[in-house]
Amino acid sequence: MASKSTLTGLFLEELLLFITIFLLSLSFPSFSSSSRNNIGFTVPLIHSINSPRSPFYNPSLTRFERIQASVRNTYLRYHYMITSKSSIINDSNNHPDWIETPMSPLHNFAEYITSYQIGTPPVETFAVVDTASSLIWLQCLPCESCYKQKQPIFDPSNSSSYDKIRCDDRLCHESWLPPTWCNNEMTCRYGMLYKDNTSTEGVLATETLTFGYDLAPGTISLLSMIVGCGHKNDFGPGTSDLDSPPGVLGLNRGSLSFTSQLGIDYFSYCLLPIGTTPESETSKMHFGLAALIVGGKTPLISNHYDPDSYYLNLEGISVGNERLPIPAGTFNVTSEGNGGFIIDSGASFTLLNWIAYDLLVEDIKKKSGITEPGEDPEGRFGLCYWTYFVDLIKWTPNVTFHFTGVDLELSKQNLWVQLKRGFVWNGLWCLAMIRGTTAGHSVLANYQQRNINVGYDTHNNAISFQPMDCTKT
Q1: Which residues in 136-170 are b (16+ Cβ under 10 Å) and which e?
Q2: pLDDT confidence band for 97 (50 / 70 / 90)
Q3: pLDDT (average), residues 210-233
Q4: Domain positions in the chain
Q5: Is residue 433 within 8 Å of 416, Cβ to Cβ?
Q6: Staple 229 to which of 115, 140, 318, 344, CB 3.0 to 4.6 Å?
Q7: Closest of 319, 310, 165, 286 to residue 220, by C-alpha
Q8: pLDDT confidence bin for 281, thresholds 50/70/90
Q9: Which of residues 69 and 253 earns the better pLDDT score?
């Protein structure tokens, strides 16, 4: 019989072997199905405008000024989304292989950011959380040109885990990478240009990224993640004095996105209503084993011109118990890749094809018991009332989005937004949706996703919805 010390030694050897294998499994981004979803972790989703934790928080803004800032940012975000498609730039002067993408998540940036740590030793930074982007990138020293940011710009020379991808490395030539080229130092360079003239150019590298909710127990360090270290970044004309996020955490379905690099098929978030308590300004996003995929599921549909975005099939909209007479195909992707219905965590307010939007507004007017109309002074929202929120609950009809397989009824809290406060407790309340175009995308935005657990299941190509109290997730 083996002695107690021998058994203890064998146990320690096996434990050491397990730890070694686990660490090695995290050392390189894996694209094989065998390693999928073997990790789970949670990160903060910080509201960039409303949260005191955000480096872009302005305490002098009133609640209503913050709402107007969200509306303006939403309009600009949608403008770039609906007026352009991805293409390759043919710049014969310097960068013939730069990729041009529809919009920059930094320019009038997405509403949610996250904090994480990069490098060894780790330093804190922030990134836009963008389900419409793929590449993970941030500004890096030395700067050929960099836009203004509040945090110190990351200096890779201080990180022992930073490793440039060389031109003779197979990673530099993978088909799923953005277009790359080599410089005289034989390092693998990338370039991305957005339609709003925001751009980033730099070195592709591998680096350690550390994530965790409030960097508490459960924090995870991810080794050798592929990142773009941007040394030449332009935020676009007229924005040199604006503080902007250091970079982007891409979460679309592209092969270089954060989730794809980890081989994770599942992530979820549950957005808290904004403005109730300071704690409500930070929500949570869960990845891998920590993701919550519950409720009804609707399939993701494909757009060959935009294969990495999250398109859903919206079959119709009901006001009360009656379906609107929206023409068939209104929310379909066209043969040219236009239109369609996208779910986007970064946009503030839902955008609808104008045909559907006009029908929705007119039917709510007809069925509403509130008679005192209002008007958005900036003309962004098309239906407003001077009223009390309790009267909106009582006297306005319910609105339901009918996705394939899921009927998503919007709560009154997600349907109406208060723009102004009146006397006593009444105020100017507007339908929290925006009129789009016929050819552009329609978008389910984050205001309509509050207190709903939204699960992304790319293994089964589906999105799940489950209304719940997001303070309890």
Answers
A1: bbbbbeeeeebbebebebbebeebebbebbebebe
A2: very low
A3: 82
A4: 40-56+110-288, 292-467
A5: no
A6: 140
A7: 286
A8: low
A9: 253
Q: Mind telling me the catalytic residues? A: 130, 344
Q: Please tell me the predicted confidence (pLDDT) of residue 170.
A: 82
Q: Are 450 and 410 in contact (CB under 8 A)?
A: no
Place of tokens 């064998």: 10
Dihedral in degrees, nearest 10, Cα atoms 153, 157, 163, 165 = 70
Q: Are strands 247-250 and 137-139 parallel, antiparallel or unpaired?
A: antiparallel
Matching CATH topology for 40-56+110-288 and 292-467?
Answer: yes
Residue 354 scores a pLDDT above 50:
yes
Q: Where are the beta strands (DSSP E) in 253-313?
A: 266-270, 282-288, 296-301, 311-312
Q: Which long-range contacts (CB under 8 A, 24 or more apart) does 279-283 make?
A: 280/471, 281/46, 281/47, 281/50, 281/51, 281/52, 281/53, 281/54, 282/44, 282/45, 282/46, 282/47, 282/51, 282/53, 283/44, 283/45, 283/47, 283/112, 283/470
pTM of the predicted model as reported, rounded to 2 decimal places:
0.84
- Nearest of 133, 204, 140 to residue 174 by alpha carbon: 204
CATH architecture assigned to 40-56+110-288: Beta Barrel (2.40)
Buried b (16+ CB within 10 A) or exposed e, 317-340: bbbeeeebebeeebbebeeeebbb
